[in-house]
Amino acid sequence: MEVETPAQAQGTTHVAGTTRTLRNPLLVVNFVLMVVGSAGGPLFLRAYFLHGGARKWLSALLQTAGFPLLLVPLCVSFSRRRRRRPRRPDDGAPAMAPFFLMTPRLLAASAAIGLMTGLDDLLYAYGLAYLPVSTSSILISTQLAFTAAFALLLVRQRFTAFSVNAVALLSAGAAMLGMNAGGDRPAGVSPAQYGAGFAMTLGAAALYGLLLHAMELSQAQARAGTAAAVTYTLVIEMQLVIGLTATVFSAVGMLANHDLHAIPGEAREFDLGRSGYYLLLAGSAATYQCFFLGTIGAVFFGSALLAGVVMTVLIPVTEVLAVVFFHEPFNGTKGVALALSLWGFVSYFYGEVQTSKAHHLPDKPTNVERLDP
After folding, report:
1. Nearest CA to 180 among 144, 132, 141?
2. What pLDDT shows up at residue 96?
3. Which is nearest to 117 in space by CA: 218, 223, 3?
4. Which family does the record assign (predicted)?
5. CB 179 within 8 A of CB 260
6. SS3 of 93, please?
7. CA 359, CA 280: separation in Å to the nearest integer?
8. 94 three-state secondary structure
9. Smallest Cα–Cα separation from 44: which of 358, 320, 288, 337?
């Protein structure tokens, strides 16, 4: 795995690394987690709004509230580290193993990313409350364009003609949806609410493009600042802190908005019943945690731009599921916008592969990090 620092991030290294890391089985596992989260998360959250839910701060909190699930792999990793610690020479007892591997600097960086994630979750929740899942998903696909732009600004990544073509196609798809704004407005949503949802979803896409690179740079700084390896365990710890901080951010908003007092009444009046209400909330939290864990793992084993590309190619899965489960309209404009998004993905990935072949860089073994350092 290669996490590039700003000084090291050259296009040649990146494209070669993209090809190599695709063979990493742990990267494939993280892709599967992204598929589960990308397909299930928006559907759970949209179902919450369609069946009587109306709490935006609660829906933002659900996107990171599953972070306690990460304590399970962290406990397993701690147990393994404890068994493998060398014994003390005085009494022969095993030396103490730290439960957390994070440095204070990385902890602060992860907390800052968590605050940005909380804001991004709120923007996305507002957008999904007023937009169909299909429209929201296509708009979210523009995060690849934002991710590519931040790759140029933050890590000085070189662009090829294929990369520029991908960004242009994604931007054109979003512009088409903007010109058709309101054509698929759900019942009960005013034009002003639809426009606000459109703008907030684009804002969420832009902010998430920045977040991906913030994660990548924080991992690179952690590697540069310590002699120890940056392991997948450390990445899970980062996601735990990010999830905790984002959840606290949303919880404060819920308290200010009196959402906690409204939840029991909302559950009683929910179309799917009280049990269905709480199961829906739990399902949202679990699937979104899969998505965030898979994303940060994709950044760790690949790059921020690779994670953005994978998120883009998963759009058709969400599109099809939204049409099947929610019977959302899928007009010609959406079809063209989706085709442009997929064309942009194919253009980007084809360009990466061709550039890698052109440089004929020798293949080197991928550093497959285990769960325990």
Report:
1. 132
2. 61
3. 218
4. Belongs to the purine permeases (TC 2.A.7.14) family.
5. no
6. coil
7. 49
8. strand
9. 288
Cα gap 139→203, rounded to integer Å:
10
Helix, strand or coil for residue 155? coil
CB 291 within 8 A of CB 212: no
What backbone torsions phi and psi does residue 87 show, to the nearest 5 degrees? -85, 150
Q: What is the pLDDT of residue 204?
A: 92
Residue 23 one-letter amino acid: R
Helix ranges, 2-103 (H)? 11-21, 25-50, 56-62, 71-84
CA-nearest of 72, 204, 79 to 140 is 204
Q: State the Cα–Cα distance between residues 369 and 373, nearest whole angstrom.
A: 7
pLDDT the model gives residue 146: 82
- pLDDT at site 224: 66
Query: What is the three-class DSSP state of 141?
Result: coil
Q: Which residue has the tokens 């009444």?
A: 265
CB-hemisphere CA count at 13 Å for 49? 27
Instruction: Please give the pLDDT value at position 13.
Output: 42
Rounded to whole angstroms, what are the CA distances from 323 to 3, 59, 283, 348, 354?
38, 22, 20, 27, 35
Total count of residues recorded for the chain: 373
For residue 372, what are its two tokens? 């325990």
Amino acid at 273: G
Report residues of the chain scoring pLDDT below 50.
1-20, 91, 227-228, 361-373
> pLDDT value at position 8?
39
* Cα–Cα dist 260/144, whole Å: 35
> Alpha-carbon distance 216 to 224, whole Å?
12
- The distance in angstroms from the start CA to the end CA of the chain is 14
Write out the DSSP string of 87-142: BPTTT-PBPP--S----HHHHHHHHHHHHHHHHHHHHHHHHHHHS-HHHHHHHHTT
- Phi/psi region, residue 291 (left: phi>0; alpha: psi -120 to 50; beta: rest), is alpha
Q: What is the CA radius of gyration of the chain?
A: 21
Tally DSSP H helices, then E strands, for the chain. Answer: 15, 0
Please state, in angstroms and as integers, the Cα–Cα distance from residue 181 to each residue in 186, 193, 230, following that order.
12, 11, 45
